[in-house]
Amino acid sequence: MVDGRRHQENDDEGLRIDDRTYACGCRMIRHEFHDGSVRIKTVRHDGKVLKDEHSGNHEA
Known about the structure:
Mean pLDDT: 92
Low-confidence stretches: none
Radius of gyration: 12 Å
Number of strands: 5
Order of helices and strands: EEEEE
Oligomer: single chain
Helix content: under 10%
Largest sheet: 5 strands, antiparallel
Structural class: mainly beta
């Protein structure tokens, strides 16, 4: 287990948010949208985006 914070939210219609911030400052953000599409973003502690993947209609 790694030290850090985790924030999770969801609603009854399928929206799910999972935001993890690790003690070193790195982040992993995962959004699952109502239509089943997913966005995953991984950011290193210095702000460099390591991964930013989108599926479905949410290409924001």
